[in-house]
Amino acid sequence: MRPLFFILLPGLLVAGAACQRTDRGSSAPLVGPVPAASVVTPDARLRETRWVLRRIASQPVADSTVGGQQPYLQITDAGTAEGQGSCNRFRGTLQPAANDGELQFSPLVSTRMACPALATETLFTKALQSTRAYRIQGDTLWLYGNAERSGTALARLEATPAR
């Protein structure tokens, strides 16, 4: 009987600790696992985040564009925008925003090399030039052509670790 008690005791202690709760009025944390539904991913930062292009309007963009490189956008804390269109690198600055959520790029300068993925790059560049607002939710950035952020997004980008 005694060996069985010593085998079951650790399991009972763990089970008892997992069920322990505190008063509703108490600020002490609950003990036990946090339900997955209550875990919230914080929004990525617009600046100093590498944003990889995933969609242009309603068209998906492949992870590795054939004949080019992965298109991305990165905005610095200093207000410069740079990235890779697919074939060519681009750079520009941000226009001052009057309200939260507004985003507008100055004319972007870019290299002019030809490659098979030039169509993707052209659409991405046009989307950036038409951007007037953005929305971030978790690790996703949507670019919109109007301040109301309505209608189909011009582009959808995903936060990835900076290289």
List the SSEs and their pairings.
Blueprint: H1 2-18, E1 50-56, E2 59-60, E3 72-75, E4 80-84, E5 89-93, E6 109-110, H2 118-130, E7 133-137, E8 140-144, E9 155-160
Antiparallel strand pairs: 1-2, 1-3, 1-9, 3-4, 4-5, 5-6, 7-8, 8-9
Protein name: META domain-containing protein
Pfam families: META
Domain DUF306: 44-148
Describe the overall structure.
The chain is of the alpha+beta class. The chain has 2 domains: 2-38, no CATH class; 50-160, Lipocalin, CATH 2.40.128.270. The protein is built from 2 helices and 9 strands; from the N terminus they run αββββββαβββ. The protein has helices at residues 2-18, 118-130, and strands at 50-56, 59-60, 72-75, 80-84, 89-93, 109-110, 133-137, 140-144, 155-160. Strands 1, 2, 3, 4, 5, 6, 7, 8 and 9 form a 9-stranded antiparallel beta sheet that branches. Strand 4 (80-84) and strand 5 form a beta hairpin. The longest helix has 17 residues, at 2-18. The radius of gyration is 24 Å and the shape is globular. The N and C termini lie far apart (60 Å). It holds the Pfam family META. This is META domain-containing protein.
Q: How would you describe this structure in keywords?
A:
9-stranded antiparallel beta sheet; 163 residues; alpha+beta; 2 helices; Lipocalin; 18% helix; globular
What is the straight-line distance between the termini?
Answer: 60 Å
CATH class categorisation of the largest domain: Mainly Beta
Helical residue percent band: 10-25%
Helix and strand content put the structural class at alpha+beta
CATH topology of the largest domain: Lipocalin
Largest sheet: 9 strands, antiparallel
Order of helices and strands: HEEEEEEHEEE
Question: Would you identify the regions where 5 or more consecutive residues have pLDDT less than 50?
Answer: 8-32
Radius of gyration: 24 Å
Task: Count the E strands.
Answer: 9
Give the amount of beta strand, in percent. 25-35%
What's the domain count? 2
Please identify, by name, the CATH architecture of the largest domain.
Beta Barrel
Q: Which term fits the overall shape? A: globular
Organism: Hymenobacter polaris
Domain DUF306: 44-148
Protein name: META domain-containing protein
InterPro entries: DUF306_Meta_HslJ, HslJ-like_sf, Hsp_HslJ-like
